[in-house]
Amino acid sequence: MIEVQPLRQPWRQPNPLLAAFIAACMLCGTAVLQALLSAPLPAQVAASEAHAPQQDTARPQVLFLTHSAGFAHEVVKRPATGLAIAETELSAFAAPAFRVRCTQDCSEVNAAALRDVRVVVFYTTGELPISEANRAALLAFVREGGGFVGIHCATDTFYEWNEFGQFIGGRFDGHPWHQEVGVLVEDAAHPANAGLGAAFRIHDEIYQHRELTRSKLSVLLRLDPKSVDIARGRHADGEHPLSWCSAYGKGRVFYTALGHRPEVWKDERFRRHVLEGLRWAAGLEQPQPAPPNATQLLIEAALSGVALPGGGDGTLHLEFEAPDAAALGQVRLGAGATIHLSGRVDAAPLADSCGAIVGVAAPSVLAQRAGWQTLDVVTRRDSAGLRRITIALNGTPVHTYVALPAPAQEMRLQCSGTSLRFRNIWFVARTT
Ligand SMILES: [Zn+2]
User: Fold this and answer.
1) In terms of domains, do 267 and 298 share one?
2) Is 165 exposed, middle or buried, given 0-12, 13-18 or 19+ CB atoms closer than 10 A?
């Protein structure tokens, strides 16, 4: 084992905050490093700057389709003039980041129109009148790097188009509950869950889904089974995901089941959840600042292993940078999982590609990018008591719900070859 080299060499980076970070690391004063770790990171500064008013042409376009071929929700019924509630609200809360084009005309989903679009959003029901060619154009748009966001009844759409169910991740299977419910935050590190804490309560119509492609999904939110009469649902294990995301080719799919009731569209938590989901789907998400309940894990401490609170069940977030193709490293989570990090870029996922769980599984997709990269690891016990691990590399799920052979009670960082650089490492223990 070769120890992590804590940022010995300066590298090209114009940001003064990061330059200060490098200088601190060269001095290696733990107190200074701790202070800097709690200070805003350059990316966070960039995130707040992104909210400044921008020229319309500077903001990427969202195409928001609210066509109801089946049940028509109140929030998408347009008054005699103007837009429906969902259209007005989404246009408003997405405005800092996106131009939103609202339509109820399915013919606007076509290859030519999609050339100017970054994210397609569906709040739809039934068999949409979209031609076969335009359906193929929609899938090709996402496969080639576009974003797709489904809200609430988007899964109550296209029952006669098989591929759509797999694309969005599940099919509506009734709404056994319409009440105030508890929602558990499954992945505290996902930007769409920022500010939601470990759990929250909300009054909405609550879907259950069938044909969930669980092995391909990163579940972000799920129903707290204790908050409802769970026997009214059809899933014997009580597992009802309410929001998830997945990779689709080079693109990204985000879904949230919330959003039936008009007041939910005015709820700041829902608005932020959807906005950050849009940003994530567009590939514009910023590295996550540590939530208030996170434990900051210092780089020096990690050299000899740090105990993870709560027995290791929770969310581990770390950021790393590979200076060249020879950079190699591992994140060891107890005896349960060793995650491979690499500066080498492969043509296809391999057993030692960046993001592989050593000896267990290659990443499902390649999700490396230049510069600082993020690794988010979520572990939890399933209803059978088995530990499951979900890993996202740069926001893209590369392992979902993989069974772990042993608990992950501590974390170690290891490097060999050219050293990787690490920053902003934190852990949120699961409390639910
Ligand atoms: Zn509904």
Assistant:
1) no
2) buried
* Residue 259 belongs to a domain: yes
Q: Which domain holds residue 363?
A: 294-429
Give a yes or no: residue 181 inside a domain: yes
- What's the burial of 327, exposed, middle or buried (CB within 10 Å: 0-12/13-18/19+)? buried
331, 299 contact by CB (below 8 A): no
Contact yes or no for 426/317 (Cβ under 8 A): yes
10-residue stretch averages of pLDDT, the chain, 432 residues long: 30 32 31 32 33 58 98 97 97 95 98 97 98 98 94 98 96 97 89 91 97 81 96 90 88 95 98 95 74 72 64 84 82 82 86 92 83 84 82 86 73 68 84 75
The answer on 267 and 204 residing in a single domain is yes
Give the distance (Å) from ligand 1 centre to CA of residue 246: 23
Kindly give the distance from the C-alpha atom of residue 323 to the centroid of ligand 1, in angstroms, as a whole number. 49
Residue 1 in domain: no
Question: Are 115 and 64 within one domain?
Answer: yes
CATH of the domain at 130: 3.40.50.880
- What is the bridge-based pairing of β-strands 147-151 and 119-122? parallel
d(CA 183, CA 254): 17
| Cα(146) to centroid(ligand 1), Å | 26
Asked whether the beta carbons of 328 and 428 are under 8 A apart, the reply is: no
Q: Give the integer Cα–Cα distance in Å for 320 and 315.
A: 16
75/126 same-domain check: yes
We report the CATH number of the domain holding residue 341 as 2.60.120.200
Q: CB 19: neighbour CB atoms within 10 A?
A: 13
Domain end: 255, 282, 309, which one? 282
Compute the distance from residue 175 Cα to the ligand 1 centre, in Å: 8
Question: Does residue 326 sit in helix, strand or coil?
Answer: coil
Q: How far is the CA of 259 from the centre of ligand 1 (A)?
A: 7
d(CA 189, CA 291): 8
Which residue, of 248, 282, 316, is where some domain finishes? 282
Mark whether 268 and 367 lie in a shared domain. no
Q: Residue 377 C-alpha to ligand 1 middle, in angstroms?
A: 32
